[in-house]
Design a protein that fits this description.
heterotrimer, A mainly alpha, B alpha/beta, C mainly alpha, A: mainly alpha, MetI-like fold, C: mainly alpha, 10 helices, about 80% helix, about 0% strand
């Protein structure tokens, strides 16, 4: 039943697919963290106009399915701009932008847990707001946000399964191809599922260990 | 430093829009403090003393009035507040140490980022400040590993490390267990002996008697009475001050 | 098809989307609530809850739907040949895992004293849970449940892969039909989904805050 695993042709596909899945996920959560931080800062300190724009952005990306956003990115955007854009690039970007909408919320929450007192302390020693953000607030916020970030990572990995349906070769595509060649359905999906499970559980466990080491005692984000 | 006719109010938001209260914490308060002075502001809680002190340090902005640091008017628009705040030292009631840094790191941070000192010199000055508050053994400890008294002394070291023109202290001992206030008060006494300019908000009466040159009674947003400690401890002029002093002296002598 | 016709075509998928989401949400309550209480109050078997949560955190819903529908469907046509069943099954059990976490946080928020008070008047453990904790836990969980429900509406788009003709599938169908419009179907689909998620999360939040005030939290 599971013989296909030992055939090099098939396991190369699996490795290819897995590497794309991992790349999209990591790119997505890291880009999301970067943009999310900027959005969070702008949301706390910016003017009404920028906060309104951020609210619209967040509502769009959190209010519609990633599946739809993917199709919008891969098909609609190039059509509107009348350009040919690499589908892989578009997919990477849409996952980053989507993740940013969620991570803005996590970063803002993390920052606000410590903001008032640590900002006062930073200003009181003569640092500017930006200096305080950079040297005092963000270093602490990044540690506080690790559990939420890990959660976002798990979610994002699962949603990368959609890219198979816009023609990219990820782990699910690998499964579809192998199934097409070997006519094995159940074993293939069991293996694919197990690979996802191993990757996600493994990475989360590593992040949990990192969090235990790096967390600031007594300061945790109340998840809700 | 000088405060001239300062006003500050803040909003307490209630559940409904009608419930929003406006509290006038600072009503037309003026105060002068010269180099080497040690003045103490005291009064009932909630009277706005902390708000006023934060305005002096430009951590909050006054609604009306002016604040001067030497000749420079800080409340004018366009002033570089960061440079001004670098010349003022502030000690918080709840300490507010940078939790992700060690004691040494807490003191060094401003020296490196604000005064732009090179690594070795910043370290030397930080160690010197920590030595002044007699706490060098806690250098590599994190705030969560220190007692309240130790943490607050690090806070004081952080405030004095830049050799500021004046130090403002907002109830430095109020959040500490009674046993730990002693170490902080000793530190402040030492600083006073060296001639540091200090403006303290506190109700540590014995300390006030010993160290303050002038005491300022602050109640419900304004300064009701000022004078040397002897005035307040023997025969205050205003009724409110009399009331307050009797209650406080009864409490501390019991 | 013009924009309006496309819009109607997509809106015809709303009932399916809604029924899948609502059904999954209810399955999620039925699973998540007991699991949360087991995790908090029955320490010996709490590892089962952890394992359950880990599985649902670690396998994509799409993969599970493909596995059950195409993999088990042929062998067990009774439930697994029905795409709607598979959709509600996968999303429902997944929601159970998410809701278990939500309720766990709410249980902690309500506090142990309530349980102690309950057992002090003579109620058994599970009776106290049912009569005292559960009502309060729901009040505490409203923001989390709001976002979970919105999540289910969005994840219902996954059922495209097993052929259910809801909003997502219809939008892809519009792309496939001549003249191959790729602009309006997806923009319209996004708008419809946003219109469905926005009010729900918003009002559940408000309802929860009001109930919290009523019982004095």
């Amino acid at each position: 039943m599971f013989e296909f695993l030992f055939d090099p042709k098939y396991y190369t596909w699996i490795l290819q697919g897995l590497s794309l899945t991992i790349e999209i996920t990591l790119f997505g959560v890291l880009l999301g963290l970067a943009i999310g931080t900027l959005l969070a800062i702008e949301d706390i300190y910016g003017r009404k106009l920028s906060r309104g724009a951020i609210a619209v952005y967040v509502e769009f990306f959190r209010g519609s399915p990633l599946f739809v956003q993917l199709f919008l990115a891969v098909y609609t955007v190039p059509a509107i701009l009348n350009l040919r854009i690499d589908h892989y690039l578009l997919a990477f970007l849409v996952f980053g932008l989507n993740s940013a909408a969620y991570q803005k919320g996590y970063m803002k929450g993390a920052m606000q847990t410590i903001l008032d007192d640590q900002m006062s302390a930073g200003l009181s020693v003569g640092m500017s707001k930006i200096q305080t953000l950079r040297h005092v607030i963000l270093p602490q916020a990044y540690r506080i946000v690790i559990p939420s970030w890990t959660n976002e990572f798990c979610s994002l990995t699962k949603s990368t399964a959609t890219v198979a349906f816009v023609g990219l070769f990820d782990l699910v595509s690998a499964g579809i191809s192998i199934r097409a060649w070997t006519y094995q359905i159940l074993p293939v999906w069991i293996v694919i599922g197990a690979i996802y499970l191993a990757w996600i559980t493994g990475f989360s466990k590593i992040m949990d260990i990192i969090y235990e080491r790096k967390k600031i005692p007594g300061v945790e984000l109340l998840m809700q | 430093m000088e405060a001239k006719n300062v006003y500050k109010a803040y909003r307490i938001k209630g559940d409904k829009k009608e419930d929003t209260k406006i509290v006038q914490a600072v009503k037309d308060v003026s105060l002068q403090i010269h180099k080497g002075d040690i003045k103490l502001i005291f009064g009932p809680s909630g009277s706005g003393k902390s708000t006023f002190l934060r305005c002096m340090a430009m951590l909050d902005f006054p609604d009306k009035g002016e604040i001067y640091l030497g000749d420079q008017c800080l409340t004018k628009p366009g002033v570089d507040l960061n440079k001004a705040r670098a010349r003022i030292g502030f000690v918080f009631q709840h300490i507010y140490l940078f939790r992700h840094l060690t004691a040494l790191g807490n003191v060094e941070l401003a020296l490196r980022q604000v005064l732009k000192l090179p690594k070795e010199e910043a370290r030397k000055r930080a160690l010197a400040a920590l030595a002044e508050v007699k706490i060098t053994d806690c250098c590599s400890k994190y705030p969560s590993q220190m007692s309240g008294g130790q943490a607050q002394r690090v806070g004081i070291a952080r405030a004095i490390a830049r050799n500021p023109d004046i130090i403002l202290l907002d109830e430095p001992t109020s959040a500490l267990d009674p046993e730990l206030t002693g170490e902080v008060i000793d530190t402040l006494r030492d600083l006073a002996k060296e001639g540091t300019t200090m403006l303290i908000v506190s109700h540590e009466m014995p300390f006030a008697k010993e160290v303050a040159e002038e005491m300022i009674f602050y109640d419900q947003g304004t300064i009701l009475e000022t004078g040397p400690p002897s005035l307040f401890f023997n025969a205050p002029n205003t009724d409110r001050a009399k009331q307050f002093m009797t209650r406080i002296i009864n409490r501390t002598t019991r | 098809m013009d924009v309006w016709q496309q819009f109607i075509f997509l809106v015809e998928g709303v009932p399916l989307t809604l029924s899948i989401s609502i059904l999954s949400f209810l399955v999620g309550i039925a699973i998540g609530l007991p699991l949360a209480f087991i995790r908090v109050y029955e320490k010996e078997i709490s590892f089962v809850v952890d394992a359950y949560e880990k599985i649902w955190r670690g396998i994509p819903e799409i993969v599970l739907m493909l596995l059950l529908y195409f993999g088990l469907g042929p062998y067990f046509p009774m439930p697994f040949n029905n795409a709607f069943f598979v959709a509600a099954f996968v999303l429902g059990l997944r929601s159970g895992a998410n809701q278990s976490q939500i309720y766990r946080g709410a249980i902690r928020g309500v506090g142990d004293e309530q349980m102690i008070a309950g057992t002090s008047v003579g109620l058994s453990k599970w009776s106290a849970i049912w009569h005292i904790m559960v009502p309060q836990v729901f009040t505490f969980s409203t923001p989390g449940l709001g976002s979970e429900y919105a999540l289910l509406i969005k994840d219902s788009a996954y059922v495209y892969v097993i052929g259910i003709f809801e909003i997502m599938s219809r939008s892809i169908q519009l792309k496939a039909m001549p003249p191959g419009d790729v602009i309006t179907p997806f923009i319209l689909a996004a708008i419809i989904y946003i219109a469905m998620t926005f009010p729900i999360a918003f009002s559940l939040d408000r309802w929860g805050n009001r109930r919290k005030k009523k019982i004095g939290l």
